[in-house]
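quick one before i forget lol
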Amino acid sequence: MERLPQEIIARKRDGYQLEREEVEAFVAGVVSGGFKDYQASALLMAIVLRGMTPEETGWLTEAMMRSGRIVDLPEISRPKVDKHSTGGVGDKVSLILAPLAAACGLCVPMMSGRGLGHTGGTLDKLEAIPGFSTQLDDAAYRKQLQNIHQAMIGQSVDMVPADRKLYALRDVTGTVESIPLICASILSKKLAEGIDALVLDVKFGRGAFMATEADGRKLAESLVAIGTAMGKPTSALLTRMEQPLGRMIGNSLEVIEAMDCLRGQGPADLMEVTFALCAEMLRLGDLEVDAAAAKATLKKAIDSGAALRAFRQLVEAQGGDPRVVDDYERLPLSEHCCEIGVENEAPLYIGRLDARGFGQAACVLGAGRSSMDAVIDPAVGFELLKKEGDRVEPGEPIVRIHFTDDKKLDTVVERLRHAIGLSKKPVAVQPLVVDRITG
């Protein structure tokens, strides 16, 4: 029996498991307008409060995936493997990983998102490169994957339209942090883009949507279970997001750091996460069976220059200025810098660099957005001159701020000082990669 929207809402509100037909009717109604925004918002809140069973979450994921065009890539002979991160501060791994994986024999069809709130977005970083277009039509997308084995695009209008509508509602109704809704949002997009397998970077900590390791693990296990059940080999790495990843925060600055990484000059923490995720991609793509061998292959691709050449190919293929690879000054860069440190009389140690605090300060500075229509300044951001555990000598700077509007500077500096914790004693830094979760 077909149920009205209010009947479906009431059933979930009262704690019942929805039938598959009800879940499909909800998704179809969101796309067609049969479910009004207020009704869809009510059901989203009921899902947040009552949860969803694994079966319901799987049905929701599949219905969302099938709400628009699904890409199939039989013409691509290489293993097609993608990676997705649940979001963090300074996380520019995708910019390094896609060309690196392509240089090692994979095909990487990557659909990415924009930053919102304190987390950065891959598309915003790529668009800091002059001319770079993140919108490719189907023919161009397929041709590029055949030619250079990688593409980094935004969600097209006809792919997973249900997610675009539902995410916009979740963002303004306090219903973002729900594991079933997160799973359906991530996997519906990834499984629609033509992949054979998927690797997930599920972050937890101060700068992640999942604050605790337990919550991060629960999300990772759910994502892996649903992806595997839908016929795609899926695995996840559980990683910490307590402090920003790498040393750069801000769009142009993160592009520069990504290119440094592809030159073999990246910071250790960023390369650790990148190598771990890319090695897992090579494993799922059946190109390597051993993590140590995979990492040797990845290092060889960087040392030989193949990974950097692949990045240059990506930039040129999507309309960007490939000269940025050799001339960083072709990127939009700030003309103004200042540094903040501590006025200590004796050496101290960095005990805390709160990732969320840095991300929020970056938004105030103009590097991120607090609403979807906010305009980003690609030139601004932070350089972390010290990381957690580092020793700070008297008067030594901790952060360099790249800014364009000095009216925001006092607020940004105040936020950064709150985000930095100092210790009189040496501080042990916890490992970044906590666990590997497989189907």
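fyi The longest helix spans residues 213-229.
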